[in-house]
Amino acid sequence: LAKAVPVLQLVDVRKTFGDFAAVDGIDVDIREGEFVTIVGPSGSGKTTLLRMLAGMEAPSSGYITLRGELINDVPADKRPTCLVFQSLALFPHKTVGENIEFPLKVRKMPAAERKRRALDFMRMVRLPEHYYAKNVMRCSGGEKQRVALARAFAYDPDVLFFDEPLSALDYKLKKVLEKELKDLHRESGKTFVYITHSLEEAMVMSDRVGVMSRGRLVQIGTPEDIYTRPATRFVAEFFGEVNSFPVKRMPDGGWTLAEGGPIIVAPVDTAMGDTATVIVRPETMRFVTGPSRADNLISGKIYNEYSLGSRMQYQVHAGERIYLVEVARAAASGLVAGDAVTIGWDARDAILVGD
Ligand code: ATP
């Protein structure tokens, strides 16, 4: 089946500027029809990687193949790919219809056919039909984003690349468009490669998420993998606030807190050094009252509380340490700053990561 051949394959791809490696050896296969998102902090090399994939920059070394053909030096306009980015690059004095039809016009499609196709794409990106004749500059930010997307589809590319297309939009619109983009991905069957600095955005939309740090891909996997089995402390902490405990190995192979004291951690089958970090997410910690079966118990005092809407987060101080505990609002009734509490978490919720 066609699915067996990756649509895009990267082998040891590097990009250096002087002595600095912005992309420092990336290997990845992207399958037909996949939605892959690359996330990473500012400066981690995401844009540089995407520019190489889209043909705006040639790799310094390594190979990029598209359906088995080497494309390292093939310029952007000669690739069956299309880049959608934040600044959109729409034609400002033209209508929505003219913008979307541009790629069709270049291909010399007759006018009536062009219009029919443009209206199809507008429907696909949920733009009302009467926008066809509207000047694109009179559209809102979200609508412009849809126009850019419709135009990208009009190119009929094999792969669509997205460079933070939603980052300039307000939170609510962004949330709506994230889901629409995922729906659109499903409906179109195209391969999407997306970059963002927001792991949250990546998790909502993607089949697989790749996490970049300093030019390298530290982990790539399903959102579930990244969340439940982060490969490194960096990945776990990139995800959001976590409780982390430096630990060291004991002679019997178990673990103890580096600062001293017991910690119960489920065994892992990956190789670890003599020191590691245990990550416990705030949402897997809980308040314990009465007799408890939690593997790890800590007594402390609530220092502050934060409302997250349906959930509550608490900062709990215990000795020198600060813990974050997040529980459903209903499970938190009556807790206030100053209360003495016992927090508990289970070994199976402890994620052991190498340093
Ligand atoms: P952001 O989220 O801020 O856009 P990014 O992850 O996309 O960051 P890149 O833009 O790929 O990161 O940049 C990676 C590194 O490469 C940065 O340190 C940047 O300064 C450097 N870099 C990128 N382009 C060039 C260039 N043309 N010349 C020199 N250095 C560059």
Automatic annotation (TrEMBL):
Under PROSITE patterns, the record lists: ABC_TRANSPORTER_1, ABC_TRANSPORTER_2
Q: Name one GO biological process term.
A: quaternary ammonium group transport
Q: Name one GO cellular component term.
A: ATP-binding cassette (ABC) transporter complex
Q: Report the Pfam families cross-referenced here.
A: ABC_tran, TOBE_2
The record's section on InterPro entries has: AAA+_ATPase, ABC_SmlMolc_Importer, ABC_transporter-like_ATP-bd, ABC_transporter-like_CS, Mo/tungstate-bd_C_term_dom, P-loop_NTPase, Transp-assoc_OB_typ2
The UniProt GO MF terms for this protein read: ATP binding; ATP hydrolysis activity; transmembrane transporter activity
Boundaries of every ABC transporter domain copy: 8-239
Q: ATP-binding: is it a keyword of this entry?
A: yes
Q: Which key words tag this protein in UniProt? A: ATP-binding, Nucleotide-binding, Transport
State whether keyword Phosphoprotein applies: no
The record's family statement is: Belongs to the ABC transporter superfamily.
Protein name as it appears in the record: Fe3+/spermidine/putrescine ABC transporter ATP-binding protein
Lineage, please? Answer: Bacteria, Pseudomonadati, Pseudomonadota, Alphaproteobacteria, Hyphomicrobiales
